[in-house]
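## retry 2 of 3
previous attempt timed out at serialization; input unchanged, resubmitting
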Amino acid sequence: MRVYLFLLLIAAAVTFLSTPAARLLARRAGAMTAVRSRDVHDMVTPRLGGLAMFAGIAAAMLIASNVPFLEGLYQGSRQPWGILGAAALVCLLGAADDKWDLDWMTKLAGQILAAVLLAWQEVQLVSLPIGGVTLLSPRTSLILTVLVVVVCMNAVNFVDGLDGLAAGVMAIGGSAFFLYAYTLTRDVSANDYSSLATLITAVMIGACLGFLPHNLTRARIFMGDSGSMLLGLMLAASTITVTGQVDPARLSGADIFGQFLPILLPIGVMIIPILDFGLAVIRRIGSGKSPFHADKSHLHHRLLRLGHSKHGAVLIMYTWTVVICVGLLLPLLAPTTAVIGFWAAGLLFALLITFDPVRWRNGRHRKDSDARS
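## retry succeeded, writing output
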C-alpha cells in the first residue's frame, strides 16, 4: 500500500507543479476557452490542464518501473508501456482539440486508434468476470475493448462542465476502484501484491488531486479534452486489467455479487459521466443532431436550473458518486443490514440535497452566519 501511496503523491506533486507551465503554454498557444452561451464560466480561461496531468502520470509510472515491488509488472509485459503510449496519444489529441476545436469525427477516429493501441499492447478484455466466461472470438474482444475505452473517454469529457467536477468525481470514484483492486490482489495472492490496475488507478487519483487546487471555484485553468479523455482512458485501462484477469470468486466471503463487482464498480465510478453521456446522446439524436453536438442540457446545467449554485452542483455530484461507490464496496466489508441501511440513508440524503436546493442553501447560509457571529 505504501508504494502505491508514494506513487500517488509523486503524480500529484508533478501535476501540481506542472500546471502553471501548462497554463502559460495555453495562453501563448491560444488554447483558451471562450465564454459561450452554453458555458457556465464567465471569463476566458486557459485549457491544456491535461498536459500537466499526463506529466504527473508519466513521471509516476516511470518511477514505478524502477521500484522492486512493481518490477514484475514491467518485465515481459507490454501493458504498462501500452497504457502510457495510449495516454500520450489521447492527451495530444485532446491538446489539438483544445487549440483548434477538432470536428467530432477526427476526435472519434483518434479515440478508436488509442483504444486499438491498448488492445494491441495486450490491454484487452479477454473474458467476462462471471465464472471466467471466455469471449466468443478475438474480434468480439477487440470490439468490446474499443467500445469500453471510447465510452469512458467521452463520458468523462461530457461531464467536465464545472470547476473541479470531472477531477473530483474521478478522484472519488478512482479511490473506490483503487481499494477494490488492491483488496482483490491481496486476497488472490499471498506473496505478490503488485497490481497494474491498482498502479494505474493510484497515479490517476494523484493527477486529479494535483490538478484540483488549480481547478476549483474560479478555476485558473481547465483540464480540457486533453485531461478529460486522459482520465477516461486511464480508468478504462485499469478496469480492463482487472476484468477477466482475476477471478473475483476467490475473494474471501465473495458470493454472486462479488463476481459481478468488476462490472458494477466501474459503472458506479462512472455513473455520473455515463448517465450524462447517455442522456446527451439520446437527446441529440432524438432532435436530429450529432451525438457530439454541444448543448446546455447536461446534468450540471439541470442542477443549476433547479436553483443550485455552481459549487453546490459540484458537491451534489460528488455526493452521488460517494454514495454509489461506497454502496457497491460495502457488501464485501459489512453485513447485509449495514449495506441496506447505508443505501437507504445515502440515497435519501442525496435526493434531498438534489431536489430541495432552497432549504439546502438556506441551511448553509444560516451556518455561515452563525459561524461569523
